[in-house]
Design a protein that fits this description.
The structure holds three protein chains of three kinds. Chain A is an alpha/beta fold. Chain A has helices spanning 41-48, 71-76, 94-101, 110-114, 118-137, 153-165, 183-198, 210-216, 234-239, 241-248; strands at 2-12, 15-26, 30-34, 56-61, 64-65, 79-81, 171-175, 202-206, 219-224, 227-232. Helices cover 38% and strands 24% of the residues of chain A. The longest helix of chain A has 20 residues, at 118-137. Chain C has one domain. Classes of the chains: A alpha/beta, B mainly alpha, C mainly alpha. Chains in contact: A-B, B-C.
């Protein structure tokens, strides 16, 4: 799997939230997207997942253009995501949220259920078990039956990751997955991300925790005012003068 | 028991018909869409059934009912494609408009006697048929609940954007439920036409769809059987309280209307998930 | 031709007056108040009672009925909308609770006045015809047009030039930001309801006078016309509602003249439907009707 963006721009009114962004994400890679607030990171994720269309440029998945496809088609091609401002299905239980995440993976024709066939019941049990296993993976097995809105902030983020993984995506997109978490929780999310990458999936993540990003990512893209100002390994990024200036605010 | 059934036969029949209608509104509400086109769909079903019976009396009743359900379901597709893109209140308004257009169509159609409507439709249905239709509808919606498709509907209701990025084809699901709701409303229309012997445009105005919505909401739309509970409650209660109303000096019409409004207001303010959520609520109260 | 334009302006002025109040609440709260038509209807009955039973002259009954309508609006807001504020589905639950109140108000009217048509006693308003060029009209019609236009001008002035208007617009823009700016949001919303219902009440009394027929379901038909008007004008836009109200009045009159009276109502719903499908923002609207 290769996700490649070339010359992607998105303007709102006169403001170019994303301006000529070019980079690629490959299989098994953990790719960090960093930059100051308002740099256009979340807009970029919305472009990738099809919630927005670019005003310029192309986004390709394995050489196939996806930038004009609706979100559900993009999801079906193997891109799954979480949200910065958590978008769980608040009234559903944690386990049910993950079951919804399996939507693309489940083969459960409605007529089977209508005819009360045992195959339907088996499929449902398998789905429930898979959902519980998914929650166990993010350390929330015992929370499975609680309604999503009753969980803590950090727990909700982890349910969202489990829900995104339930579709077995080729590319997992995480928007600030550790925001609001304590260091222990954040570290466990870090371990999970590495595991996911080891399975051969690509991970693209926005993250403000600089230490975590440096430890976790294979490659990093830095955005500022919608433009890519640096790309490279964590070592290269750490030394890049443009990045340092952007983060420290160079006063210009 | 059988005496009771006989004495209140009409009441039970209307519980069944109203139950189907409340379910038809629930169908779209289950994926978060407030569509108020269902009086219009009901009219299409009722007229379809009545016209078949009057002009082709040989057609078995089951086919008549099938046609009464199918035609509105098909009609829902070209209506739904443009209007389901509208959000919340705008969808409600567009579908109110559609319902009125359907009603005005029948008012102006000479073939069906305009505003007078069709009369002397043979009675071809009774309690058993109506109950069977309601059970079939409940069964289908019950099987849908918590199925893969049912989860997709709940996801759309909770957060449509998130649902889309999970790979759920939200437009198809919304369209399917609009169509299913139209079929249920049409079926109820066909049954009612053959129970009351008549159809007229006045019976399918805005007030009718409001009644359906009230019953669905009062019963509760978080569970598939809620709307039927609401329909039964609001159909039977005014009958039970008729004496009380009369003693207070209230005419039956206004009294019924007042009860509907007051109960709806109480439910929406204090019991947002409807009457069916009452037992669980009381249990929690007792426990704590 | 002149006659038709005059008739269209006459009908349109009532639609517009009804719709400006309707759209005002939508603009501020993002909620469709389906009880607006019930206030319209009840105010007409209040005026009737004041004229017939209290023997007040019309010029005293009209303002009293308008104030009564405003007060009903305050009760409505307190009872059906304020408790729902902050609920995630408040725009749908608000629509439903307003339906509940509408039903209750209709029940009240039905109990006290019965289902039949009530009329103002003869001589409530001097019956005088006036000729304008080739067209003729009644003094009553001219007064109705005059009062409607005056009230709408007052509202426009209020919205554009006064502190209250600025507060209303701020709350419409963002209740949270308005609160930070020190605006009493609850009070501002209550005022919006008072104004909206008072205007609806005025429309109701004028409608009752114009057609001299009031019944508990008289608001239903006007409500649907009002919906067409606020959609055409753009939800939440007061000037839009004014323009669209007159436009609908004219369209209806010309439809009756050139196509046939049975198509009068079809036209308004066709307009409503086409606008929603083709240009959901309406003529002057800013609210996005579609999902992003």
């Amino acid at each position: 799997m290769t996700l490649s963006l070339s010359g992607v721009s998105r303007a709102f009114g006169g403001v170019r939230a994303v301006d000529d962004a070019t980079f690629t994400v490959a299989d098994g890679e953990v790719h960090g997207l960093i930059g100051p607030n308002g740099a256009g990171k979340t807009t970029l994720l919305n472009l990738i997942s099809g919630l927005l269309q670019p005003t310029d440029g192309t986004i390709e998945l394995d050489g196939r253009r996806i930038d004009r496809l609706p979100p559900h088609r993009i999801a079906a091609l193997g891109i799954s995501r979480t949200y910065q401002n958590i978008r769980l299905f608040a009234g559903l239980s944690a386990a049910d949220n993950v079951v919804v995440g399996q939507h693309l993976r489940r083969h459960a024709p409605f007529w089977r259920r209508l005819l009360l066939l045992p195959a339907a019941r088996r499929e449902e049990r398998a789905a429930r078990e898979a959902a519980e296993a998914g929650l166990a993976r993010v350390g929330l097995r015992e929370r499975a039956r609680l309604q999503a809105f009753s969980l803590s902030y950090g727990e909700q983020r982890r349910v969202e990751i489990a829900r995104a993984l339930a579709s077995q995506p080729r590319l997992l997109v995480l928007d600030e997955p550790t925001a609001g978490m304590n260091p222990g929780e954040a570290a466990s999310v870090g371990r999970l991300v590495r595991e996911v990458a080891k399975e051969g999936r690509a991970v693209l993540l926005i993250e403000h925790n600089v230490r975590l990003v440096m430890e976790l990512c294979d490659r990093i893209t830095v955005l500022n005012f919608g433009k890519v100002i640096a790309r490279g390994t964590p070592q290269e990024i750490g030394k890049d003068p443009a990045v340092v200036a952007a983060y420290l605010g160079d006063g210009t | 028991m059988s005496d009771l059934l006989l004495a209140y036969q009409a009441l039970f029949a209307f519980v069944g018909i109203n139950g189907l209608l409340a379910l038809s509104v629930y169908a779209t509400l289950s994926c978060g869409q407030l569509s108020l086109a269902n009086a219009g769909f009901m009219a299409v079903g009722a007229y379809t059934a009545a016209l078949i019976t009057l002009h082709a009396p040989g057609v078995p009743f089951i086919f008549v009912l099938a046609a009464a359900a199918l035609l509105p379901a098909l009609l829902a597709v070209p209506l739904g494609l443009p209007v389901l893109r509208l959000r919340g209140v705008f969808l409600a308004i567009a579908t109110i408009g559609f319902g009125e257009v359907v009603r005005l169509f029948f008012v102006n159609w000479d073939f069906t006697n305009g505003a007078l409507g069709l009369v002397a439709i043979p009675q071809r249905t009774g309690l058993v048929t109506i109950a069977a239709a309601l059970l079939v509808a409940l069964f289908v919606l019950g099987r849908l609940w918590r199925s893969r498709a049912g989860y997709a509907l709940e996801a759309i209701r909770e957060d449509e954007t998130a649902a889309r990025t999970m790979g759920i084809r939200t437009t198809s699901y919304k369209l399917a439920m609009l169509s299913l709701g139209a079929a249920l409303a049409g079926l109820a229309g066909g049954l009612e036409a053959h129970y009351t012997f008549m159809v007229s445009p006045g019976g399918y105005g805005f007030g009718r769809v409001v009644e359906m919505l009230v019953q669905a909401v009062v019963g509760g739309t978080a569970a598939f059987y809620g709307p039927v509970v609401g329909a039964a409650f609001l159909t039977v209660l005014p009958e039970l309280l008729r004496e009380v109303g009369a003693r207070l000096g209230l005419a039956p019409g206004p009294f019924r209307l007042f009860l509907n409004g007051a109960i709806l207001l109480a439910v929406i303010l204090y019991l947002p998930n409807g009457l069916v959520s009452l037992p669980a609520r009381l249990r929690r109260k007792v426990l704590s | 031709m002149g006659q038709q334009v005059l008739n269209g302006i006459f009908v349109g002025s009532i639609y517009a007056l009804f719709a400006v109040g309707y759209t005002l609440v939508f603009g501020v709260l993002d909620i469709l108040n389906l009880a607006h038509q019930a206030v319209f209807m009840l105010a007409a009955f209040v005026a009737l009672v004041l004229v017939e039973n209290a023997h007040l002259p019309l010029w005293a009954a009209l303002p009293l009925a308008v104030v009564a309508g405003g007060l009903i609006g305050l009760v409505l807001e307190r009872l059906a909308f304020r408790p729902l504020r902050g609920r995630s589905d408040s725009n749908i639950s608000g629509l439903i609770s307003s339906l509940a109140v509408a039903t209750i108000l209709e029940a009240i009217a039905l109990q006290f006045f019965g289902p039949d048509i009530s009329r103002f006693p003869p001589g409530t308003f001097p019956d005088r015809m006036i000729r304008i060029g080739a067209a003729s009209t009644s003094l009553l019609q001219l007064c109705i047009i005059g009062i409607s236009v005056l009230l709408m001008a007052l509202l426009s002035f209020l919205m554009a030039r006064t502190r209250l208007g600025r507060q209303l617009r701020a709350v419409a823009e963002s209740p949270r930001a308005a609160r930070i700016l020190g605006i009493d949001v609850d009070r501002t919303i209550a005022v919006a309801f008072f104004l909206s219902s008072a205007l609806g009440a005025a429309a109701g009394v004028l409608f009752g006078l114009a057609f001299n027929s009031i019944s508990p379901d008289v608001g239903r038909g006007v409500e649907l016309k009002g919906l067409a008007v606020i959609i055409l004008g753009g939800m939440g836009s007061v000037p839009g509602a004014v323009v669209a109200g007159f436009a609908l009045g004219l369209i209806e009159v010309f439809t009756v003249e050139h196509i046939g009276s049975s198509y009068r109502d079809v036209v308004s719903f066709a307009v409503l439907f086409l606008v929603l499908v083709a240009r959901p923002r309406g003529l002057f609207g800013r609210a996005a009707a579609r999902e992003a």
